[in-house]
């Protein structure tokens, strides 16, 4: 996509990152908003664009039937009790 066709708002924000010391971005985790990947790659062409895991899960769950929803999502809930895996 040509740079002039992108949303100027996005492209300007990424160009602002060039000013201090940012020379390149290795990975950009985005939320799926149209124009983000193109704007990032127009300024940082080698950047790998990754969809945020929360948005990936949400996009997948829209194809799960309502009757299977609880079973499909039960393993996705984070353990909020605290601690780490090694706390046994």
Automatic annotation (TrEMBL):
Q: Which domain of life is it from?
A: Bacteria
Record-annotated DUF4113 domain positions: 1-18
Gene Ontology biological-process entries: DNA transposition
| PROSITE patterns (alphabetical) | TRANSPOSASE_MUTATOR
Pfam assignment, any one: Transposase_mut
Q: Does the keyword Amino-acid biosynthesis apply?
A: no
Which terms are listed as keywords in the entry? DNA recombination, DNA-binding, Transposable element, Transposition
The terms under GO molecular function for this entry are: DNA binding; transposase activity
What family does this belong to? Belongs to the transposase mutator family.
| PANTHER family membership | MUTATOR FAMILY TRANSPOSASE (PTHR33217:SF5), TRANSPOSASE FOR INSERTION SEQUENCE ELEMENT IS1081 (PTHR33217)
What name goes with this protein? Answer: Mutator family transposase
Native species: Salmonella enterica subsp. enterica serovar Rubislaw str. A4-653
**Lineage in the entry?**
Bacteria, Pseudomonadati, Pseudomonadota, Gammaproteobacteria, Enterobacterales
């Amino acid at each position: 996509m040509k740079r002039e066709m992108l949303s100027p708002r996005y492209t300007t924000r990424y160009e602002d990152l060039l000013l201090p010391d940012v020379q390149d971005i290795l990975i950009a985790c985005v939320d799926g908003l149209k124009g983000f990947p193109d704007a990032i790659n127009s300024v940082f062409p080698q950047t790998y664009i990754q969809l945020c895991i929360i948005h990936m899960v949400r996009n997948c769950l829209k194809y799960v039937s309502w009757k299977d929803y609880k079973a499909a999502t039960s393993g996705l809930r984070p353990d909020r009790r605290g601690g780490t895996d090694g706390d046994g």
